[in-house]
Amino acid sequence: MDNSPGKHAHIDRWQINRQKAFKIVPEDGKTFSYLGKEFLVFPNTFWPYTDSQPLVRSLRVPTGGSVLDVGTGSGVIAVFACYAGAARVLAVDINPAALKSAQHNAAAHGFGETMEVRYSCLFDGIGNEQFDVITANLPFRNKEAHDVVARSQWDTDFRTNTQFFQQVGKYLKPDGRIYFAHSNFGAVKEVRRLAKENGYSMRLLARVSADETKEFYGFLIQRMRPAPHV
What we know:
Euk-Arch_PrmC-MTase, 230 residues, 7-stranded mixed beta sheet, alpha/beta, Rossmann fold, Small_mtfrase_dom
């Protein structure tokens, strides 16, 4: 997507309208169909959408492995990690409404014992646990977020993304993998820079177009291996 002011304004309007829609969901929730399965979201929760599909379709979990889903939202990535064979999934978010939605969806899909839902601002509530796989669908754009709903789409001063790459290594097993969602209207160059600065390689696995202006990506991020000594 080009970076013209008109395109930015179009994405701004679309995202603002989505944030308004997230807030007016009925109190008892709204059901969405996502990759053939149903998910319930409560008000103020980011809806299941095309943005995470390239990640979910590419996700591979070692049999019996562990997964940390950062910024879980309604829990769709975490639930699909359970379907992929994970023995333990920890889904974290800062939004109380998202935690309620994710908890409901874990139980509704029969993964109430496998999938733990926990409040955590990035890794603050994780402790010392390490994971085989870490998944993340963080806000794509460096734009000031005025409330917790806006924080699902916008990252003020790109702090969340920056802290993610600075801290993620502590929670990833030595040969672990990170699956990372992004978009053509997001700060992909900045994410690539953050990954490289913190010692990670980044490879595109899949992409899905939502319409003529919006395309979403799933990246595989891994620690860079040191060059062999000659």
